[in-house]
Structures are given as C-alpha cells and as structure tokens.
Design brief:
Elements (H helix, E strand, L loop, with lengths): L2 E4 L2 E3 L5 E7 L1 H6 L1 E7 L6 E6 L5 E3 L7 E6 L4 E6 L8 E8 L10 E5 L2
Parallel strand pairs: 2-10
Antiparallel strand pairs: 1-3, 3-8, 4-5, 4-9, 5-6, 7-8, 9-10
Length: 114
Amino acid sequence: VTLVESGGGLVQPGGSLRLSCVASENIFRMNGMGWYRQTPGKQEELVAGITRRGTTTYVDSVKGRFTISRDNAKNTIYLEMNSLKPEDTADYYCNTFPAKLRYWGQGTQVTVSP
C-alpha cells in the first residue's frame, strides 16, 4: 500500500494551496478516495471524498472553497483549497473513501496564518 501526500505549507488567510496524493494502483482503481484532516486533540474528519465514478462529497465547512478531483491515469487525487481560513489548519491525509484503510501515509501539513 502506498499513500503519499504532498503540497502542504504555510499560507495566509484567503490564500490557496493544492494538495496531491499518489496511491498504489490497486488501491486507487478499486476504491473511492478521500481527503481527511486532523488537528491535535480532535478526531480526524473527512474533508472531501470522490467515488470511482467521480461523485464528490464535502464537509459543510469547505463547500464552495475546496475541490477534490482524481486523475485515474496517474493514480492521483487532488484537493484544490481556496479562500483558506485559520480553522483549515491541520495535517491532511488521503485514504480510501468511504471506508478507510488501516494504513495511513505521512500526511502533509497545512498552516493558515497571517
């Protein structure tokens, strides 16, 4: 199993970031994929999910600001994040969706701060 996230960083409020996640081909082709985030002391939450057919779902707090997409040729999903807010600060992870694998990648850190 391979899940490799990238693209995080430090950005000012109102800024944008694009996260990428490369997954093992067998995992990617057989599953929906999702972006999850976690902050210290809080349970992880699903940010956005995309099915194999491309149907998307978002947590209410990011609707209209974040866009999830998948490139089946590259076994990669993306999370375009716009109008970022300080409350979006978290470690972001990709995993299968809606059921998650026990395995998690290293994640990518997103910090939204002036």
